[in-house]
Structure formats: structure tokens, C-alpha cells
Amino acid sequence: MKFLLVFDFDHTIIDENSDTWIVRCAPERKLPNGLRNSYQPGHWTEYMGRVFVYLGDNGVKEDEMKRTMTTIPFTAGMIDLLGFIGKNKELFDCIIVSDSNTVFIDWILKAADFHQVFDEVFTNPAAFSSTGYLTVQHFHAHHCAKCPKNLCKKKVLKEFLDKQLERGVSYTQTVYIGDGGNDLCPVMFLKKNDIAMPRQGYTLEKKISQLAQSLSPVQCSVLVWSSAIDIMSYLKLLIKE
């Protein structure tokens, strides 16, 4: 009996968007209008690339970025939940699928000593260049019309499950925990026995309920959470069964 827990990162594990939080490092903690207005739907990664160039041009160094990022608060109850999962790793495989980047997630998880809770992190690769600028790339290429250009979370989840099956690992249930519009695609891939846990009041919950109203509901069960303690209560029930 093994369960797969799939987490989004921004507004799910942490209570903010890591990409917008980094703007606190900018002069006067804001971006110039021209840069702010340069975002085009579906091309967030390219936009963040320009933000990182602006920060680099303004002399923002790696250590200042790291200091800023590690002040992001975790979502209510999340520290307890991740501690609980860490103590029960023999029952839970745990992955992150996020539109953030490897550098931010690594800093935040390591600072809180949670990196060992997660088996794999799937997110946009980022690194500091020789000149000290943070650069970010697309996670992969895909053909899904519903998802942003750089990341289809359904593709990531499907490929992970296939790879695990090849290794002889199959899961009793997949639990998907997220909040955003880009979490809908993987949720629609979940099977009847799986469970989607959208965060209350966020886009994912609204999109799932719109589907139910238009009589094309998702196949999996849905359990809304507002604090990560709600998720922990569900996991405790799961392992008792």
C-alpha cells in the first residue's frame, strides 16, 4: 500500500507566489511599468527571464535573493503536514510539480529542512550565470493546448507514473494538492479512485465546480482544503483504512 502525493508549490506549499515575491529585491520593491506590462499569456517563464535580467542589471546578487525567498511564509498547517509526511515516508511518495523554478524551490525547502520529504521536484530549471544573473528555462516541450508553453503538469504526472510502473511501483491512490488553473489539466487525468484537493477560494476549486455545473465533472473525488491540517486529517484516515 503506497500513496502518491502530488503538490503544486506557489499558494499551495507556500502562501505566496515565489515569482512575484522576488520583486521585493527590486529597487523600491517594484518593477518598471514597461517590464510589468511585457507579460503575454502563456509565456510567464520568458517574462520571469526579463525580471531576472532587470534584477541583475540593478546589482541584485544571489545571497540577497536567497535571503528574501526564505522569508516566504508556508501555508497554514503546511509545516505540520510536511512533518507528518516525513515521518511516514514508507507510505507516501511525494513530488512537486510547479511553474516556479529549481533555485527558488531548493532554497525554500532546504531552509525549512523539508527537501528530504520530496522524492522529486519537477519545475523550470534555473541557474546563476557566470555574471551572477539568474536564468530560467522551460521545463519541457509539449502539445497540450490547455497549458502554458513551458509546462503541462498532466504530461509530467503521466510520465512519472509510467516510469514508476516500469520500476514495479504502483500506487493505491494519487492525491493531487493544488490551487491554480494549470492544476486542472493533471486533475482531469486522475482516475476514479484518486482524489483532487483544491485550495478553497482559488482558481482550481472554481474550475472544478464549473465543470460539475456543465455536467462534465472530473472522474476523481474532490476534497477542498483551507488549511493543510485538512489534508493531514485526510491522509491520517487513508493510512488507517
Give the helices and strands, then pairings.
Blueprint: E1 3-7, H1 18-21, H2 33-36, H3 44-57, H4 62-69, H5 78-87, E2 92-101, H6 102-111, E3 120-124, E4 126-128, E5 134-136, H7 153-166, E6 173-178, H8 184-189, E7 195-198, H9 203-213, E8 221-222, H10 228-240
Parallel strand pairs: 1-2, 1-6, 2-3, 6-7, 7-8
Antiparallel strand pairs: 4-5
Helix pairs in contact: 5-10
Salient structural properties:
single chain; 241 residues; alpha/beta; Rossmann fold; six-stranded parallel beta sheet; two-stranded antiparallel ribbon; 39% helix
Describe this structure in words.
The protein has 241 residues and is α/β, with parallel strands linked by helices. The protein has a domain of 158 residues: HAD superfamily/HAD-like (Rossmann fold, 3-Layer(aba) Sandwich). 39% of the residues lie in helices and 16% in strands. The protein is built from 10 helices and 8 strands. The strands form 2 sheets. It has a 6-stranded parallel sheet with strand order 3-2-1-6-7-8. The chain has a two-stranded antiparallel ribbon with strand order 4-5. Helix 9 links the parallel strand 7 and strand 8. Helix 5 packs parallel to helix 10. The longest helix is centred in the first third of the chain and has 14 residues. Pfam families: Put_Phosphatase. Keywords: Hydrolase, Magnesium, Metal-binding. This is PHOP2 phosphatase.
